[in-house]
Amino acid sequence: MTLAGPPKPLGTSGHHIALMLSQHGVTLRAVAFGGGDWSDEIAAVAGPLDVAFRPVINNYRGRQSVELHLVDWRPTGDIYPPNQ
Question: pTM for this structure?
Answer without folding.
Answer: 0.83
